[in-house]
Design goal:
single chain, 345 residues, alpha+beta, Rossmann fold, D-amino Acid Aminotransferase, Chain A, domain 1, Dna Ligase, domain 1, 3 domains, five-stranded mixed β-sheet, 11 helices, 17 strands, 27% strand, disordered N terminus
């Protein structure tokens, strides 16, 4: 009976969508990055050609997940089997493009749901997503791989704030960061001892776990990577010159930075960065497009973080790097979908 039902459903989908693959572009989510995610997802939705793909937005909220078509018609997503009803029939997704920054897209929760339904997607599997979403564990793993990182001090909500111990470990100025957040939400730069307590309380509004890192002085760069036919492709490096004191939310999304792609690096340093990025992609078993951030200190790239669901808005770095590589965004997004569909997570 199940086979006959699936056969009818597949026949319906093929006839209704003229044989196109059904794509769900997941966006929104539960974190402070929700609005950025909606923009990223809308960019993907806009650039995927309707002649090849039947695309739907999957807008994620706390209380419900909603499917939206090109005419803005909405459908309720059944999270038990990741389907929705359209014209009285059940529609299944062939592939999901994950554009959810933060929970539940970047932390592995979406990957877990999709793995249960054997639906391929453009992001890392659950265990890798959980690792990279946890800055502490990710940086520990990266350090074990021989990639330099900043000195760090770990702080949890409820811990006694020992200013002297923090200064001794990481020095001043230092950066107080939520352990699991992106888009620079909650990051505070503390210049003096008297700034540290307020910085910690600010960052705790985003996460109960913090990582306090030493300041690295040097050129800040960002570089994306993805895979095609199992081969890692590194995009042109972006050099970041922030008008603010660091590359914070305002610098990232409100035009308060100069972003130079490709970065003004010599061939030797460019190759060094690319080698590290390839190594991270392979050793961490990354998937889809990921972006790594570095500060170059004395000719040595120090990793800040690995972002497995990077921004794809008009102001984001990956689209700039794709353009600098001479690739059309449409072709880039399609390659991510095609690569995802070759194997389930």
């Amino acid at each position: 009976m199940g086979f006959r039902i699936n056969f009818k459903c597949n026949t319906f989908v093929k006839s209704l969508f003229m044989g196109k693959k059904v794509v769900g572009v997941a966006m929104g989510g539960h974190s402070s990055e929700r609005e950025i995610s909606l923009e990223s997802g809308s960019t993907v939705f806009q650039f995927l050609p309707s002649a090849k793909w039947k695309c739907f937005k999957i807008v994620v909220d706390f209380d419900q997940w909603t499917v939206v078509d090109t005419q803005e018609n909405t459908y309720s997503l059944n999270l038990k089997n990741f389907t929705f009803q359209m014209e009285g029939k059940t529609v299944h997704f062939d592939v999901i493009f994950n554009a959810i920054h933060g929970a539940p897209g970047e932390d592995g929760e979406l990957a877990k749901k999709l793995a249960l339904q054997k639906i391929p997607h453009t992001s890392c599997n659950q265990s890798i997503a959980e690792l990279t979403f946890d800055k502490r564990e990710c940086l520990k793993k990266v350090k074990d791989l021989g990639v330099p990182v900043a000195k760090s001090f770990l702080f949890d909500k409820g811990d006694v704030i020992n200013i002297d111990a923090i200064e001794k470990k990481v020095g001043l100025p230092c950066f107080v960061k939520p352990n699991s957040s992106g888009s620079s939400y909650g990051i505070v730069k503390a210049y003096k001892k008297k700034d540290l307590e307020d910085a910690i309380h600010t960052a705790l509004k985003e996460d109960d776990q913090l990582i306090i890192e030493s300041e690295l002085v040097g050129m800040e760069i960002s570089v994306g990577a993805y895979a095609v036919e199992g081969e890692v492709k590194v995009l042109p490096i972006t050099e970041i010159i922030s008008e603010n004191d660091f590359f914070d939310y305002d610098a990232k999304y409100n035009g308060k930075s100069e972003e130079i792609t490709p970065a003004r690096l010599d061939e030797v340093l460019t190759n060094k960065v690319n080698t590290i990025v390839e190594k991270l992609y392979e050793k961490l078993k990354l998937k889809g497009v990921c972006r790594s951030e570095f500060i170059i200190v004395g000719g040595i790239p120090h990793l800040l973080e690995v972002n497995t669901i990077p921004g794809l808005t008009a102001a984001s770095l990956i689209p700039q790097q794709v353009k600098a590589a001479g690739i059309e965004l449409t072709d880039f997004f399609e390659s991510l979908l095609s690569e995802a569909m070759k194997k389930n997570s």
